[in-house]
């Protein structure tokens, strides 16, 4: 498993445990709040019941004062006020939620209060006003019994509510305690898991990285082909592969530099030899032409001498071109128009271009490159297609043919001088194309067949810089 996946899995597990722990803490808080709300509701319900009981007692107290013969008007007014307050308390009790375990519901409570009202209004007061003391006393005693029964029922319900309050408080405390312990356990587990993930990740990384570091330290004096280990987690293995790819690239650059130095030396030698041979070849060609114009038996031989001399001069000119690729005369070049001029000279060649594509370069040398590639394609196939398009701030040219193409084992050698798979080839056309493209700061590459396929890239004006020979 990769380091990233290990970390992701570990952190996900830590996150899940932490989320559960936080969820447990939130649940505990909610349960505690719910318990507090229930306790508050029970307390409020008990308070309302207690107020009803107190007002019932107050109402009966003023009735008792009337029975004892105290001021009739004053205590009757107080009794009426107490009854009005009792009515308001009963209405508040009726309309408010009743979470408490009451046995005396609103209907039974209203019925009992109505019985006390009936005894007071229809029995006690008429007897008092009529002076019937015995009847008033009897009605008072009946009212006292009803009041006491109602107060006892209210006190019993109050006791039940008090017990419910105690139970609700105990349940809320127990829930909160369980939730706190659960949350602490989960958060502790998340911390331990995070430590385990960190240790496992460190152990999985440090060993391969140390081996990679030691191997990298030995690279300075190592033989070509030495590679660093690619084991360990995918990320470390990818780092090893990247370093090995860099080593391969560096070795390729070293080989390319050595080859370039060798080819440069070869080019200088070839250029010197070509220069020395070119003049005698010109003399030979001149005399052969004179013999041809003179006629006679030697005409046919002179023509053969001239033909072979021109072939030699072509090879010499190719050697000179290969020896001096950097002698460029740069100017804006429309590659589409240049490609059209080249294609127009060869039957079987076609051009695919969307419009003007301008890059800085030497039009003559770039035309020579395209001409060499087209000639090479037509030598192996019946049709050649040239594509020109703007790409990556410069231009991309693709030359394709329908021939067998370059063999896979020859792709790396196809641009070497004097390497050719044609019986009549000199092996300089693609080498010259390669050197000219490199002199322009571009790249050229071949793709294995079937079908010839060469891709050139030439940088645009922004990437253009001073070059030797400009």
List keywords for this structure.
470 residues; alpha+beta; Helix Hairpins; Heat Shock Protein 90; 3 domains; five-stranded mixed sheet; two-stranded antiparallel sheet; 8% strand
Question: How does the SSE layout of this entry go?
Answer:
Elements: H1 3-67, H2 72-95, H3 106-130, H4 133-217, H5 234-294, H6 299-323, E1 331-334, H7 335-344, E2 349-353, E3 358-361, H8 363-380, E4 384-391, E5 394-401, H9 429-439, E6 443-446, E7 453-458
Parallel strand pairs: 2-4
Antiparallel strand pairs: 1-3, 4-5, 5-7, 6-7
Helix pairs in contact: 1-2, 1-4, 3-4, 5-6, 7-8, 8-9
Number of helices: 9
Please give the number of β-strands: 7
**Mean pLDDT over the full residue set:** 76
| Helix-strand string | HHHHHHEHEEHEEHEE
**Cα end-to-end separation:** 56 Å
What percent of the residues sit in helical stretches (DSSP H or I)?
A: 55-70%
Largest sheet: 5 strands, mixed
Overview of the structural elements:
This protein is of the alpha+beta class and 470 residues long. The chain has three domains: 3-198; 233-324, Helix Hairpins (Orthogonal Bundle); 327-470, 2-Layer Sandwich (Heat Shock Protein 90), CATH 3.30.565.10. Helix content is 69%, strand content 8%. It is built from nine helices and seven strands, in the order H-H-H-H-H-H-E-H-E-E-H-E-E-H-E-E. The chain has a five-stranded mixed beta sheet with strand order 2-4-5-7-6. It has a two-stranded antiparallel ribbon with strand order 1-3. Strand 6 (443-446) and strand 7 (453-458) form a beta hairpin. It starts with a helix and ends in a 12-residue tail after the last strand. The model is unreliable at 466-470 (pLDDT under 50).
């Amino acid at each position: 498993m990769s380091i990233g996946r290990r970390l992701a899995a570990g952190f996900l597990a830590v996150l899940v445990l932490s989320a559960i722990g936080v969820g447990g803490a939130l649940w505990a808080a909610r349960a505690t709040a719910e318990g507090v709300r229930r306790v508050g509701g029970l307390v409020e319900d008990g308070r309302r019941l207690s107020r009803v009981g107190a007002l019932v007692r107050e109402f009966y107290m003023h009735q008792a004062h009337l029975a004892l013969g105290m001021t009739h008007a004053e205590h009757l007014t107080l009794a009426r006020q107490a009854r009005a307050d009792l009515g308001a308390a009963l209405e508040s009790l009726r309309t408010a939620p009743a979470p408490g375990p009451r046995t005396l519901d609103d209907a039974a409570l209203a019925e009992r209060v109505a019985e006390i009202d009936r005894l007071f209004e229809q029995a006690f007061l008429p007897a008092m006003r009529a002076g019937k003391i015995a009847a008033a006393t009897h009605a008072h005693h009946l009212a006292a019994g009803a009041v006491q029964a109602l107060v006892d029922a209210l006190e019993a319900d109050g006791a039940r509510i008090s017990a419910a309050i105690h139970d609700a408080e105990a349940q809320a405390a127990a829930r909160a305690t369980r939730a706190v312990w659960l949350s602490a356990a989960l958060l502790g587990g998340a911390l331990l898991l995070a430590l385990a993930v960190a240790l496992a990740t460190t152990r999985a990384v440090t060993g391969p990285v140390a081996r990679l570091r030691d191997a990298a330290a030995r690279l300075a004096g190592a033989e070509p082909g030495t590679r660093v280990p690619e084991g360990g987690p995918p990320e470390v293995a990818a780092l090893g592969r990247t370093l090995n790819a860099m080593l391969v690239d560096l070795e390729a650059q070293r080989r390319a530099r050595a080859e370039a130095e060798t080819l440069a030396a070869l080019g200088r030698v070839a250029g010197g030899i070509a220069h020395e041979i070119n003049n005698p070849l010109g003399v030979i060609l001149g005399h052969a032409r004179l013999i041809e114009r003179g006629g006679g038996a030697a005409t046919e031989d002179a023509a053969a001498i001239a033909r072979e001399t021109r072939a030699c001069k072509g090879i010499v000119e190719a050697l000179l071109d290969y020896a001096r690729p950097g002698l460029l005369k740069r100017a804006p070049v429309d590659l589409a128009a240049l490609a059209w001029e080249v294609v127009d000279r060869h039957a079987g060649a076609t051009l695919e271009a969307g419009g003007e594509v301008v890059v800085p370069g030497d039009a003559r040398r770039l035309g020579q490159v395209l001409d060499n590639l087209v000639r090479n394609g037509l030598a192996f196939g019946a049709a050649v297609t040239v594509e020109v398009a703007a790409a990556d701030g410069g231009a991309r040219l693709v030359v394709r043919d329908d021939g067998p193409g370059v063999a896979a084992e020859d792709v790396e050698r196809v641009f070497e001088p004097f390497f050719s798979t044609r019986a009549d080839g000199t092996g300089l056309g693609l080498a010259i194309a390669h050197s000219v493209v490199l002199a322009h700061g571009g790249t050229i590459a071949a793709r294995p067949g079937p079908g010839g396929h060469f891709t050139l890239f030439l940088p645009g004006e922004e990437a253009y810089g001073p070059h030797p020979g400009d």
